[in-house]
Amino acid sequence: MSWYRWNGEDLELSLRVQVRAPRDAFVGPDPGGEYYRVRIKAPPVDGKGNQALRRFVADAFGVAPSRVTLIGGEHARYKRLRIEAPSQLPLPVARP
């Protein structure tokens, strides 16, 4: 799977984000396997979508939102996130 990679203790995810969804949820990998699809309720206005995504991912991986960093795709639907030392793994990712 190419939608995630480990960088030491940190996990980097490549996501395809759908905003204005009925609920926040992890959907599954894209057919090509390059991105993991995520739905977020928040609109993509004034950074609200990115903030909601960081909070959702932080909660799911058991870390503080400050430990989730947007490393690419700030204004795009395809984003890259870094999660510092996640304590839980809600997605099917294998530790190195």
TrEMBL record:
InterPro entries recorded: DUF167, YggU-like_sf
Pfam families referenced in this protein's UniProt entry, alphabetically: DUF167
UniProt record similarity statement: Belongs to the UPF0235 family.
HAMAP family: UPF0235
UniProt protein name: UPF0235 protein AY586_05970
Organism (species): Marichromatium gracile
